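dumping this here before i forget
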Amino acid sequence: MTTTAQQDAPRVRTRRRRSSDRGVNRAFRITATGAGALILAVLAAVAIFLVIEAWPSISAGSETLAESISWFPEDANLLTFVGPLVFGTLLGSALAMLIAVPLAIGIALFISHYAPRRMAQALGYVIDLLAAIPSVVYGLWGAIVVTPVVQPVWEWLSSTLGWIPLFAGPAANPARVMLTVAVVLAVMILPIITAVSREVFLQTPRLHEEAALALGATRWEMIRTAVLPFARSGIISASMLGLGRALGETMAVLMILSPGAMYSFAVLQAGQQQTIAANIAAQYPEASGLGVSTLIATGLALFVITMAVNMAARAIVARRKDFSGAN
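structure:
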């Protein structure tokens, strides 16, 4: 009997351990599912709040909006009011992405594959510190430092390439224009894109890199054929994170840009564009009643844009991941 009990004891302990593991796994699964459901519930609550609060301005006519809101343009409805703001938001974010993405990828590649270890650590630390700087500091830096520095450059662009609608002049003085905002936004989103891209580059399988080098590839050819295809989906994800930051940026844009309400690609002229977030920050202190509802309606438009950008990014990543070279 004693021998049989001693032989059965390990089996009993194993069954108890498995039962305990199943309980822990079940609890973890429930917790994770609840966390995911909570995120969806919060997102739905935000959307419902925006729709409910924006509905008075959505249902109001243009005459009612113009009479009730001092800063609402005359002879305009909500759609014609929101349209230029959406255009300015997308234009500034697109310009910032054009500047930041190539620069961020280059910095990430230098840190991960070219720089000595000590230099890579120091440079990575400095890049990460940029993400900790408040946006109001970026706004002050852009308005006080960047604006006078880029002024002669914008004047040269206007005089040399003014036949291109994007650089049509005359260039504003001071340079409180959309292109200056795009430069500051590019610096703000640079650490996000760089940090994510750097980590993705470092995850490239060593065997892929060594195989490319063994076949006679140079370091750049190895990066082009092994690292970049592997990291493609990660680069897209990093870029979308940066784009989300640029779309919602408020204080830097508010402090730098001379606002306007036009569908204009003239990024060197003042009083042409405005973004949704900066307009909300500028008008909210004096808004009340229907004015607040109108600002919330513009916030709803920004919410829809952000959701569309993230859904498009997820679709691109899901489509490209099978061809990323990770398998």
